[in-house]
# Entry
Amino acid sequence: MKICNLLIFSLVSFGYLSCSSKDSITNPQDIIFPESDVKFQNHVLPLLRLTCGVGGCHNTTSDKPLTSYTEIVSSTGLVIAGMPNESVLIQFMEGTLPHPGIVNYTYTDNHKTGVRTWIKEGAKNN
# Structure
């Protein structure tokens, strides 16, 4: 019985430690986009959540939430699949279109290129 309890405790502890938040990205600088095959779930959404979604700006309780694929692509003109230059998101990120309100984050070249690539590749929910 003690061996069984020890085994269960070990498995639960291992599962808890392997799912801890230490593996979660909390700093946008840690998000590195690949040169191609950009993933919405792995790259774009985490970046937007950590930059646009903080401070109540574009989180789930705001007037213009950017916390899901549907919210992002259904916002008119924000993302136009295959057309990064016409997408307002890119224009905001690159500073070619002024963003109303305060922006507390400067995107890296990798972030801008990565989001451009995602849009160019069809802005898929992948």
About this structure: The mean pLDDT is 84. Helices lie at 2-18, 40-51, 69-74, 88-94, 109-120. The chain has one domain: 35-126. Residues 85 and 91 are 7 Å apart (CA to CA).
